[in-house]
Amino acid sequence: MAAPSTPKRVVADVLRGESVFPPPVWLMRQAGRYLPEYRETRKRAGSFLDLCYNPDFAVEVTLQPIRRFGFDASILFSDILVVPHALGRDLRFEEGRGPLMTPMGVYDIERLDRSRFHETLAPVYETVRRLRAELPTETTLLGFCGAPWTIATYMIAGHGTPDQAPARLFSYRYPEAFRKLLGALADVSAEYLIRQLDAGADAVQIFDSWSGVLDEPSFSAFCVEPVQRIVSKVRSARPDALIIGFPKGAGSLYDDYRQLTGVNGLGLDWSVPLSQAKRLQAAGAVQGNLDPMRLVAGGRALDEGVDAILEGLGDGPLIFNLGHGITPEAPIAHVEAMLRRIRGAR
Ligand code: CP3
Fold first, then answer.
1. Interface predicted TM-score of the whole assembly (ipTM), two decimals
2. DSSP alpha helix (H) spans, 238-291
3. Is the C-beta atom of 84 inside 6 A of ligand 1?
4. What pLDDT digit, counting tens, does each position of 6-45 carry?
5. Which of 93, 178, 181, 323 is least surrounded by Cβ atoms within 10 Å, i.e. has the fewest?
6. Residues 9, 34, 38, 42: which is the catalytic one?
7. pLDDT in tens, 254-271
8. Fold observed for domain 10-343
9. 242 with 264: CB under 8 angstroms?
10. How many Å apart are CA 246 and CA 237, to the nearest integer?
11. Does residue 71 line the site of ligand 1, with CB under 6 A?
């Protein structure tokens, strides 16, 4: 029996390699605009960044989906772009346009200012501490950061783009500067994750949402290497750290990514075939990978998607999730139907 000091947290257990059926479940972006209570708090908080940096509000919105659905994991409410913000880059979120930053030039890389990094992010650490105290003991608490490549795409373009052409071009024109940028981001991200773990996170996820736009050598240099650097820094400080990597769109390169980075869990997007997912699962936990549009559609599309994942991956270490974040138009009734189907599965 587990000692009282080591509470049973199923998502963490699966990350250590246990197979649990029915599998534990949480959703990327589970605190968000599809919930009326999120929209309400968001209005009271003011700007999106005010929400991220105010522990009262951030704790509140993190807990909302746990109260409503009892997900097995809770993910800290924040944004991946607080990291460049804490390095002195400006950041705003505009309604309907997403994040906006001043595009970064080569010489700005030397000027990144680490001196106030942890001070700026102190409210995030406070949010994690309060969450661990307020969450049900059996709920796994996840911290997170963006992977250096994905963070860099927003820093360079100054906004989201469909294929990250500005960052790709920058990486080829200024390879040395670009490598320096990724190295700096990897170092501060490792420190950021260590602080989240020390504040009470049970595991952390590294979001590389734009892995899928790179050719093979760039994937290796910009996605695999910086994440390897983060994982090795975190593990040398906290050897038991549980880490999920999510290189969205990595396709056939998922296999290399898992092997080379040594992450405990691998987040799969919905384009990954279940046969490939099964192979990846032989080396450790996988997380995913329902198409978020099946959740919006509901009915048969949802049921068939859920069943296929349970059937294909249910006998190994699986954390049920979407293949990317839940979208604002997903009906709450469909989230409930999905949970009933997963939890009722035998
Ligand atoms: O998952 C969770 O519930 C935790 C919170 C979370 C948010 N962003 C809140 C958020 C997490 C883990 C993120 C990560 C994030 N942020 C990523 C990686 C994952 C992914 O989705 O690919 C990226 C690329 C970002 C950058 C970002 N933040 C974008 C591109 C946008 C705009 C897109 C959109 O959906 O509007 C955001 C804003 C954002 N981050 C919102 C939320 C709930 C919506 C803003 C709002 O409430 O007005």
1. 0.92
2. 254-261, 274-281
3. no
4. 679 999 999 999 999 999 999 999 999 999 999 999 999 9
5. 93
6. 42
7. 999 999 999 999 999 999
8. TIM Barrel (3.20.20)
9. yes
10. 22
11. no
Helix locations, 27-174, DSSP H: 36-45, 48-53, 55-69, 82-86, 117-134, 148-157, 165-173
DSSP 100-126: E-PPPPGGGGGG---TTHHHHHHHHHH
Determine the average pLDDT of the residues in 115-132. Answer: 98
Average pLDDT over residues 302-325: 98
| Residue 85 CB less than 6 A away from ligand 1 | no
175's tokens: 């390879």
How far is the centre of ligand 1, averaged over its atoms, from the C-alpha of 96 (Å)? 12
The alpha carbon dihedral of 305, 308, 311, 314 has a sign of negative
**Among positive and negative, which fits the CA dihedral 31, 34, 37, 41?**
positive
Q: Can you tell me the mean pLDDT for 271-284?
A: 98
Q: Taken in order 100, 210, 273, 285, is the CA torsion positive or negative?
A: negative
- Our measurement of the distance from residue 7's CA atom to the centroid of its chain's CA atoms, rounded to an integer in Å, reads 23
Measured between alpha carbons, how far is 164 from 45 in angstroms, rounded to an integer? Answer: 31
Give 3-state DSSP helix, strand, coil % of the chain, rounded to 5: 55, 10, 35
Length of the chain: 346
- H or E segment at 285? strand 285-290
Domain boundaries, the chain: 10-343
